[in-house]
Amino acid sequence: MSLVEEFASRYRFRLDGFQLEALGALERGESVLVTAPTGAGKTVVAEFACWLASRVGGKCFYTTPLKALSNQKFGDLVAAYGASRVGLLTGDNTINPAAPLVVMTTEVLRNMLYERSDALLGLAFVVLDEVHYLEDPERGGVWEEVIIHLPPEVRIIALSATVSNAEELAEWMRLLRGPVSLVREERRPVPLISRYMVGESLLDFFVYRNGSPTLNPAIARAERRLAPRRRARRDPRVPDLEDVVRVLEREGLLPAIYFIFSRAGCERAVRRLVSSGVRLTTPAEEEAITEYAEMRAAYIDPDDLAALGFGEWMEGLRRGLAAHHAGILPTFKETVEELFARGLIKLVFATETLSLGINMPARTVVLERLEKFTGEGHEPLSPGDYAQLTGRAGRRGIDEVGYGVVLYQPGVPFERIASLARAEPPPLRSAFVPGYNMAVNLLAERDLEEAAAVVGRSFAQFQADREVAQVEAKAARASDEAARLWARAECDRGEIREYWELLKIQRGLEAEEGRMRRERISTVRQELARLSPGDVVWVERGRKKGPALVLGNGSRGRVRAVLPGGRLGTLRPRDFPHGVEVVGRVPLPPSLTSGALRRQLVQEVSSFRPPRERLISPELASVRERLAAHPCSSCPELEEHLRWAARAARLESRAEGARRRARARAGSLARVFDRVVEILRRRGYLSGDRVTEKGRVLARLYVESDLLLAEAVFRGVLEDLSPEALAACLSCLVYEERGTPIKGELRERKAVRAMEGLERIAEELEEEERMLGLSLTRRPQRGFAHLAYCWAKGAKLEEVVAAGVSPGDFVRTSKQLLDLLRQLSQALPGSPLGEKARVAAELLNRGVVALAGAI
Fold this sequence. Notes:
The chain is globular, with a radius of gyration of 36 Å. Helix 2 (17-27) packs parallel to helix 3, helix 11 packs antiparallel against helix 14 and helix 32 (807-827) packs antiparallel against helix 33. 48% of the residues lie in helices and 13% in strands. The chain is α/β, with parallel strands linked by helices.
């Protein structure tokens, strides 16, 4: 019996073809990249790696992008292999780290690789769950660093949602690591039916004619039938929340996840249904919910539970209703996940964070709107977003089909909504950018050339170089086509390309003159207002062209004058396309009634010539002369020749522009790395290519604003702070404000001065980076400082809630701050600042913050 057959016999169900294909590749000693829809069973492949590692006496690291996913997977593996064989490393938690199977966040593994941890000895397999995270703008580079730096003998099991360019990712991995088998599964294990809800009508997106899907005409009919009349208070096509729940229950579509994309909207929806008397549970289910939820909450202080609105939350749970978003206390959120997975919670209102790998399959997914909040604004859902969200619909082994229900979208054509369901999954784009911490870690073991070569092996550069080759090929084809068009433009009287180039120069010079003329015209009114009687100005427009004698003033934007030829007339701004300039002056007699006198003045004025700058430019005049003398100018078919020449020139211009852009991308990351190194040298973290003592501290700071923190350390900005003030100050480096600012302002003077010092350093770094075309340092944000200080001082949770921050945000930011403080303590062992950082971390890690790290 093969290893695959032995492993497969552990399951009560028959493994799918793609799972067996991936397992076979691992048995042959290859790495694998598995792409499959949500719920297809990719984790079976990861479980085989864990099982293989236990068979051969090696280690397997199971990495995930989220601590919640790591905690969930840790529980799964403990159930399968026993607590003694499974460990957990998330930054918050360290459980049995020497175990042969260790679950961790991807950042933890990246840090271990840079620190050359002894834990890497004997490592045989690494699972990279949700590897498509490498396109995440903030954290995606971590996955590439891991793939690049893992020892070559370690096999990778990369698991991803369906992407359209999986072959490109696999090809890059093969270049780095040798044999990598790409295993694709595009079929959903539970088919998805997309439905559109108009009013209370639930209609399929598509109907099938001759086996081909077409848009359901009943949707258009329903939209017309329910169209609101004039002055209607609401659009009857938009389903009411209670109606949606009633239809879901009537049609047997529960349990469901209802995506709202607004934390406040999720909470409002639960409160509204509770107040409406909606109840989706049986008495037995209500009892089971109460027992489990009270058990999970038993570890939380009763005063904290009161501050968290525990009673209101429990009332929703008992009715089978819950909200799920990042603002909820982790314990509450995990309780909702478990109750939903057990089929006790029937309807969860969620933001898109639920779609990121949490194991909460549903029969139905409801999308209230087709746009989401990005933190800076709202943007439409992409086909990838739609696939990720609706991927939750359909429970394997329970449901024959899953349902994706989209509610009527005012102002959005249904054709656009249907296109989301039909669209191909999006290509994966690398977000890798070399930073300061990465640079010093690379140079700790390599010279500059070798370190730059590592950066050049990133997926980002691989994609850029492939695009260069593709663009060059397209440009070559465009150049061939342009040559064919030039041949068609050929003129038997002369060289048409030469004539075209002269014509192009002429047009450019004329455009420049036109631009200068337009810039001047805006000041003509002021120039007219400065004229005095007797001034001679040069008029450049139409029949008035020539010298004119000013008779009055131009205070109203026009002036009376004796025009060329002796006529009296009015000069206006449009008569001076190049601006007004006095070219001479003639004394005026008391009266101009005599025609002879006017003729005498005209004769005198006519001797004035225009200023040289008002003449056509010598370059333009020369080009026009050359064009007129060119042999092609007399060709009767010149216009036809020029049409072909214009098409050829456009093709050549586009090809050259594409080449320039492509060349700029070739080696682009190496140039970024060189600029990062330049800044590190200027600031003493590198001496030549060697990492200095300052650089070794920076190498252990794995935070977004790593160099900013290191500069604050070495400039003494943090020296005089108490542990509480240090926590407040460093919160500026992890906190990101979203929505309403937190109430309260820190007034502790030393901490305020330290935060001001951080901000000054950030401004310096931003300016230095801007000069080099970089953007790596994030500006500190003070919004959490007051809360961090108060919590470290022993404040109660009710004070936190009163400040306007959600419990989930408070815990998450506190955990990030804890991680930063621990890093600082480890980077400065034995120093007073390192000790204060350790104490500050202990002060913060209490109550709901400490409980969130418990398993």
